[in-house]
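Hey team,

Filing this mostly as a record. A colleague (T.K.) asked me to run one chain through the structure pipeline before their review meeting, and I want the input and output archived in the tracker in case anyone asks later how it was produced. No errors, nothing strange. Just documentation.

Input sequence:
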Amino acid sequence: MIRETDVFRIGTINKPHGVKGEVSFTFTDDIFDRVDGEYLLLMMDGILVPFFLEEYRFKSDNVALVKLEDIDTAEQARRLTNVAVYFPKKYMDAQEEVTSWEYFTGFRVDDLRHGTLGTITAIDDSTLNVLFVIDDGKGGELLLPAHEEFITGLDKQQRIITVNIPDGLIDL
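Output structure:
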């Protein structure tokens, strides 16, 4: 079973395009084009389901027209409308540049002064300032700005982000 901590969200299926099963896909990260990943994962009824890419072409800087294996009709494609799309973290090279905050879901957050803060469970991008939603492991939740200036270290293999949070920000 594929766990949500092993993937990161890269976009959403919009709607069918044409009659042969192609879909319009709005993405926030074009990782599927930069690395050799064989499939995308779609969140179907709360379960991550792999769909193999047959082909795709870019329509704009953040929209691609995608043909998925075994999706051959407009009706089949219509069932994928508004479905979240994820990409497996295992295909990311250690040197691959991270271009989406969603990638960090499941990472442990260690602060230089406060020690381990918890695990990132979600990304809140509903406002201009993107926030890491961190489960502190004690039933509480911490919101931290997802800002490059605060990140002092990144261990992709161990899945740890080291941060240096300004005094007082954690206490808010």
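Quick notes for T.K.: Residues 122 and 153 are 20 Å apart (CA to CA). The helical segments are 31-34, 74-78.
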